[in-house]
Amino acid sequence: MAIEIIELQKRIYRNIKKKALSFEVSASKDLKLYRQNQTKFSKMPFKVATSGTLLKAVGNSDLIYLGDFHTFDQNSRNLERVMRHLTNQKKNLILGLEMVDAEHQDYLDAFLSSNITELEFLESIEYHDSWRFPWNHYKDLFKEARKQEIPIYGLNSKGTLEERDKFAAEKIQALMSENQDSKMLILFGELHILSNKLPKKVQKLLKDSNIKKSHTIIHQNLDHVYWKLKDAKIKSSIVKFSNSEFSIQSSPPWIKYESMVYWYENLIDDPDFDIHEYIMETGSKTFSSSTVDQFHTLCHEIYKSLNLRPHIKDKIENFTLYDHRKIDFIQRQIDKIKDKKSSTLYQKLLTTSKLFKIPFTSSYYCPLYSINRLSYLAGAHLYFSSLIDPNEFDQCLISGSREKKFLAILNLNISCYISSKIINPHRKCDHYRNLIKKRDHYKKTKSSEYKAYQVATELLDETTSVDQIFKNCSLSLYWKVGSLIGHLLGDILFDKLHERNPDKVVTYIRDHIFISNMGELKWETTKNHLLPTKAFKMRKKRFF
């Protein structure tokens, strides 16, 4: 079973990477050489490392380079994680970003000082022409830097890749000379931060200036490293090439190439591209005929990987997808729901941009498209297709017992999460220790989120029965708790697919998760099979 899943992932990887790189037919000679250099480097020997080892190296370094795959937001999120770690340790910190030209430093300072608005900043630095990659990928960095009063410096310039490296190196050397008590965290293109590129130039300039500074280089999601770990059946999100060079493997490589395909197909040559769309967070990643085909393919591939029942196969063809462009239509469908509790639930899902099936139909709403969302939604489609009565789930939410309501939603979320993990095994969710921490935080802050985390932890602690705990509760609470526990259980179940007796796990998934008759659902059965020991309480979400 594990081998079949890996083969599926390799097919997806090859297809998406081939499509992504096909857009680079006019790539410069420099770019091709830089790519070849990265491929050669990524094949170097490495050792598995821990987040503690990486963060210790970061804490002991004066310069920290993180590689950026510009169309992929996960890279900038990892920079945020490193930045928060350093600020929590009370380190003096400055940021250097390739995405802003150094000549626009005055506008950058004005924005961080709140003297100009976000829109004024983006227009002043000519973001549309100078960078063009999604602003949403980076704006949280600016928000956090403003909050922590961390200076940011633009490092970009015009010219060839080599000329831009030279300029950035000189800028970094000057900044380190002026801020010798500070660490500098640098987000730069992944091809530039190879040890023989930008970091080497910086070290030479610092040495010539008699300034001694140590550095750590952090690559992200290197293809060859991912498959080498996969083939060796090693579960690790961090590897070490040397004491000063690491790679964070927080996502499968095909996810980043998917983001590259989307950028080329929808943004780079779009004459109507507008940064306002990113500020308002609308107009992104919409469905097309190729998206529908991709969803259809994902459904079939996950169906085969999990060896689901034959009758599901024919039902897979029956679906309709809608995105945010059809929000008025979706709203009308929700208005038709006669049951008030169900109507309130789906109204909340719509307004909070969640994925869902429109009740009593085979139509799905997915506000924004990505391979993660499509694979998650594919799990939902397979779950609903597994039911002998396609309306049983919707009817259960209206008239089912409290336990049946919860279990229907729980199994839906387990199905969705397992499916998305098959396509992206690096997806992360909250585990028991995370739920406890958030529950206590929300209780302290008197947040409306507290109730869901309280209920989830009580169910996992077996201190309260399902029937008792959901008395007089809204369907929204059922949905939230079902999502929290469903993702946790789905994560545990996915790991079991890669341990001993995977066929036994597949049988359990087919007979107890993608279930034909909801009357067979029992919380005790699920809990006893997936949480047989207290070991699950020691698990927590990975840092990277």
Please characterize this protein's 3D structure.
The chain is of the alpha/beta class and 544 residues long. It has 2 domains: 25-280, Rossmann fold, CATH 3.40.50; 289-538, no CATH class. The chain is built from 26 helices and 11 strands. The chain has helices at residues 2-22, 29-42, 51-59, 73-88, 105-112, 118-124, 127-130, 139-148, 161-178, 198-208, 223-231, 253-266, 275-280, 289-305, 310-315, 327-335, 340-351, 371-386, 392-399, 402-423, 432-445, 450-461, 466-469, 475-496, 502-513, 523-530; strands spanning 47-48, 63-68, 93-101, 152-156, 183-189, 215-220, 238-242, 245-248, 320-322, 356-357, 363-365. It has an 8-stranded mixed beta sheet with strand order 1-7-8-6-2-5-3-4, with helices on both faces.
Question: Which descriptors apply to this entry?
Answer:
globular, alpha/beta, Rossmann fold, 544 residues, 26 helices
How would you summarize this macromolecular structure in one to three sentences?
The protein is an alpha/beta fold and 544 residues long.
Task: Explain the layout of strands and helices.
Layout: H1 2-22, H2 29-42, E1 47-48, H3 51-59, E2 63-68, H4 73-88, E3 93-101, H5 105-112, H6 118-124, H7 127-130, H8 139-148, E4 152-156, H9 161-178, E5 183-189, H10 198-208, E6 215-220, H11 223-231, E7 238-242, E8 245-248, H12 253-266, H13 275-280, H14 289-305, H15 310-315, E9 320-322, H16 327-335, H17 340-351, E10 356-357, E11 363-365, H18 371-386, H19 392-399, H20 402-423, H21 432-445, H22 450-461, H23 466-469, H24 475-496, H25 502-513, H26 523-530
Parallel strand pairs: 2-5, 2-6, 3-4, 3-5, 6-8, 9-11
Antiparallel strand pairs: 1-7, 7-8, 10-11
Helix pairs in contact: 1-12, 4-8, 5-6, 9-10, 14-18, 16-17, 18-20, 19-20, 20-24, 21-22, 22-24
